[in-house]
Each structure stands twice: as C-alpha cells, then as structure tokens.
Specification:
Oligomer: single chain
Helix content: 25-40%
Number of strands: 23
Amino acid sequence: MRQNSPFVLLNERDTVVVARDTAPAGGVWTSTDGMQSVVAREQIDLGHKMALRPFAPGETVVKFGQPIGFATKPIAAGEWIHSHNLDMAPLDRDFEFGTDLVQLPVPNEQRTFLGYRRPDGRAATRNYVAVLTTVNCSATSANFIVDAFDKTILKDFPNIDGVIALNHKSGCSFRYTGPDHQMLSRTLSGFAQHPNIVAYIILGLGCETGQASYLAEQFDLVTLDGSGSSNKRPLVLNIQDLGGVRKTVDYAVGKLKELLPAANDVHRVPIPISELILGTNCGGSDGHSGITANPALGVASDMLVAHGGTSALAETTEIYGGEHLLTRRAVSRAVGEKLIERIRWWEEYSAKFGAKIDNNPSVGNKKGGLTTIFEKSLGAIAKAGNAPLTAVYEYSEPMTEKGFVIMDTPGFDPASVTGLVAGGANIVIFTTGRGSCFGCKPVPSIKVSTNTPIYRRMIDDMDLNAGTITDGEKTVEEVGHEIFEMMIDVASGKKTKSEEQGIGDEEFCPWMPGPIF
C-alpha cells in the first residue's frame, strides 16, 4: 500500500480510490505505472471515495472490483463520490455454487488456549453465573438479585467472572409455540446452555406467554447445583408464586449463594483452539472497514478454520449485494441456496414495511464514507476470509459444523451478537471505524479499530489498531496474525477493554421479527 499517496486503489477494476486520511483539494493519486494521475477537485475525507474517471448518469461505479451503485448525475474525474451523486439499483447477480473453493494451508503446529473444560466436554472461555429472565416483567427483579453479588461477596470466589442478569424486552404478547416464541426460547436456551455460563436460575413473572417451565422442558435444560452436580433441572422461580418482588429476590439470592462454591471450583487447562467458535461482527463501519480491520480479521478467521475451529459471519443485511461471492465458496449447492433463501426472506421482510435493505447504512456509516449497502456488504464479508462455506444457520441455532459458517441475523449489533452467542460463539471479534463501545457478557468481545484516529481517540475502548495498514506500517497479513494471537490470549483469560470497564450487561438483545399483540 503506497504510503506516499493520499489515496488507495483497492482493485485494478475499480473506478474510485479511497482516501487514506483526509485529502485536501489538489491531492493527487497516481497509478503504480505512472500512466494515470487524478487530482482531487475538493477535499476528500478519510474513508471517502474519489472518482478516477468521468461518469454519466446511470453509469456503474466499481469498488472492491464489484458494482457498488450508479451515478445519479454527471461526475467528473477527481470529484467526491457519495450519497449526493451515487445511489443503488437492482443488480443481476450470477449465482454459482462451489466454484471458488480453496484449501487452507495446514498449520505447522496445533495451538491451544487455556480454557475451562466443562463436565460434558464443552470448552469455555469465561465462567459466569446467570439469572435468565423469561419476560421483561421480571427484569428489575433480576437486577435486584444481581446487585446483591458485589465485589465484597465475589472476592472469595476468584474463578467466577461475575453474576449477570440476562434481561430483554419481550416474553409475552406473541402466539404460544409460534415462531417468535420458538426463536426467543431458542435464544434463551442457547445462553442457558452456553459453556461460559456455569450455573443459572430462570426467573419469570408467572403469567407470561413464554413460560419458564416450557423453556426448561422443551430444551431439556440442566445446570449446576450446590453439590457440584451438572445434571439437575434449573431452579425456576415465578414472582407471582413466591409472593412478590422482595420475597423472590431474597429467595433467589440465597439459592445463588449456595451455588457459588461449586461454580468457583474450576481451573483453566490447555484446550485445542479447534474448540473455539468465533463470532465476527462489525459496527460503526466506515470506508476503511473493508480495507483494514475486516480483511485482517478474515486472515485470523482463516487461521482459526485451518486449525479446525469455527468462524461465523453474521448480519445478513450486510451480506446483501455480496452473497454471490459467498455462494461460490459453498461446499454444496444446498448450503449456497440456503444463503440465497435468507437473502430473499430479508427482501420480502423489508418490503412489508415499505423499506429496503439499502436503508441499512447508518448516519455514522455514511459520515465514514460508506454510501450504499452494496459497498458496505463487500467490505463486511471480508471478515470471512477465504475458507469454504460449510453451513448457514438461522438465528440463534446451535452452530455444530466446523469451518466457516454464516448465521442469519439482523445488522443491529446487539441482536446480531446475541444470536451468535446463543448459537455457541465463545469469543467475539468486533471491528469498528466510528468507535463502537460494545461488550457482551458472558463472552469476551475484542474490538479492532479500522483507522488510527479513532484508535487514539478511544484508546480505552479499542483493543487493537488495524489503521496501521493504511498508515503503511503493517500489512493486512501482519495485523491478521496479531488478531489471531490476541484471540488466543483473550480466550485464555486476558481481559478485553470492554471487560475491564464492565461493559456487556445491557447488550443481551434477542431478535424477534414478528408482531406484538
């Protein structure tokens, strides 16, 4: 990457370049062979695009070697290209299946991390006790229970990372056993059965549609008891049955205290990294996301897959426009067609509300240089590296296949990561260009900045800076290796910046697409 140029050309087929930093009017991009030079007609901000040639209205603009939209007015070479002169229109995509399968290099050595081996054989990266709520009506009571377990109590149990309340905004006013009930129950059970949750109780109001008894029986839930046995039905408490909030809180606190000695009786041991399930996500993306942090994460993702682990791409609405590149990596036609089916579902779902998927890029995304969802998606899928696509899962389904997989989630970060964790992700890597402050208990979330200015501005929140790539200091591969090593360190117990600040209690956000009655 030419550090002496204020612009970056990402692909030889591109008709735009991207500003490495804010480029003043008069800034020059010159091709590597010296045969073409373009002068910026105006200031081009960090992550934004400059035209390499003139465009007539309706002409295709290309970035990442792929169409990202169409000119809506005449554009001169050197002009800034963004929402004022670029828009999206339907594209004909050529869907192929299994035509771009690559074999990843075999690692020289098998790596391990220091994790908790659960009695049933699963691998954990953290060790939490949880209060799982069935309905929003029990959320405040759950918070009261958790508040009782401050540092003065937990100091005697150093192997417990915390007691958390998994609260949400639903649990009622949907059809009993209907799609939303099933999706919420699957998400709640995914957290209840997550290896990072060593013990839990289920807390309900009593009259809600999402009954605690249904959840425990439908998913055959078990948990730790005070004797250390891990095959007991979870304690189910209903506020109405126990005589109100105060009685429920007092009873629950007493029961949870009984679980602490057994929950604390764990030790980290070497575990193959093939048992890591990585959830990838990007939030507050900018024009550098697809140049730095996302492709570097793709390198780390491929490294984990090469070791026999699992890496999951999510945010289906941010795959839109690039799905044809992923179907080519599908190990079977059925896997590729399932991805297309989920894309079609989102098109129909958006249309029901008079919306379109191109509404996805946020205000911050656009300030950071992203114009259309096609552009955003092409950068987002770089997180997936080059590994073959082995499976496509619906929201919060258990991710059982090894390798690179996709989970169907919305682009809203808390809902997306909640689905990934419910599906089994035991570590999350989160890229951001505008500066997300995301955390997600009970799973550690590593945040990677896409550019150096945001890394410096939010140093207390960012774990790693991928902006060194556009700064010309490191390559994508070098930063990818850094991410990979940090992933192993964090899985082994090193705290992320979000964990150090206690972030992650409020980000549990189950997604349900249906109506509320």
